[in-house]
């Protein structure tokens, strides 16, 4: 027992290879979720006959998903270099804005088709 060291600090040393792998998997899951939202938005836009606003919203959803896919792919590739570089604030902000905008477009399509 090491005096002065809390019991939680006496665990095995952290493997630096695990965190980048978990982060890569998180980016992939988020990209997959965005793909599902884009597909459901397109399905919602075409259900009951396509209208111009619905098709435009579905196209915006697809464009946002493609932008997020590009950002995620860039980050996943960056995580393969040891040690992985920190996520640039510009990329983090862009990814967050793409995610929020994709959610807003999806919600707009759902509310438009439910009325």
TrEMBL record:
<keyword id="KW-0812">Transmembrane</keyword>
<protein>
    <recommendedName>
        <fullName>DUF202 domain-containing protein</fullName>
    </recommendedName>
</protein>
<keyword id="KW-0472">Membrane</keyword>
<feature type="domain" description="DUF202">
    <location>
        <begin position="15"/>
        <end position="78"/>
    </location>
</feature>
<feature type="region of interest" description="Disordered">
    <location>
        <begin position="1"/>
        <end position="22"/>
    </location>
</feature>
<dbReference type="Pfam" id="PF02656">
    <property type="entry name" value="DUF202"/>
</dbReference>
<keyword id="KW-1133">Transmembrane helix</keyword>
<feature type="transmembrane region" description="Helical">
    <location>
        <begin position="52"/>
        <end position="71"/>
    </location>
</feature>
<feature type="transmembrane region" description="Helical">
    <location>
        <begin position="91"/>
        <end position="110"/>
    </location>
</feature>
<dbReference type="InterPro" id="IPR003807">
    <property type="entry name" value="DUF202"/>
</dbReference>
